[in-house]
Design goal:
Layout: E1 8-11, H1 17-28, E2 32-37, E3 48-51, H2 57-71, E4 76-78, H3 94-122
Parallel strand pairs: 1-2, 1-4, 2-3
Helix pairs in contact: 2-3
Length: 133
């Protein structure tokens, strides 16, 4: 990773192994990193740690306002939060499946929507996503 000095990055699902590695790598590359998970992760490389339920659109918007207030305008969103259906698939319930789908499909969708709103607010163009119709 290069060219990240001073860039503001938000990583969801930061408490897991992959999330922790992402936070560390972005921070080592000079980014100011916000780390989020259901409970604020205690990661020394993170400039900001916050709670975020990725299945809640309002929580995404609140998290991005918090990131902007603490670190500045968002440059990069990493939708890393993920969830597998727990245990044996034969024993999985419809609620287990709905939760996994919400985290894995709805979470990145809501996060991208909120990031575009935040990037428009700050004048960032999110690789054309903020203005493309």
């Amino acid at each position: 990773m290069s060219g990240l000095d001073g860039r503001v990055v938000l990583v969801s699902g930061a408490a897991g192994v992959v999330g922790t590695a992402l936070v560390s790598r972005f921070a080592a590359a000079g980014a100011r990193v916000a780390a989020s998970d259901l409970a604020p992760p205690a990661l020394p490389a993170a400039a900001l740690s916050l709670a975020l339920d990725v299945t809640d659109p309002a929580a995404w918007h609140a998290a991005l306002h918090e990131v902007e207030a603490a670190l500045g305008p968002l440059d990069v969103l990493v939708s890393n939060a993920g969830l597998a259906v727990p245990g044996d698939i034969e024993a999985a319930t419809p609620a287990d499946l709905r939760r996994a789908l919400a985290v894995n499909l709805e979470g990145p969708f809501y996060g991208t929507q909120a990031a575009i709103v935040a990037m428009k607010r700050s004048g960032t163009e999110a690789m054309g996503l903020a203005t493309r119709r």
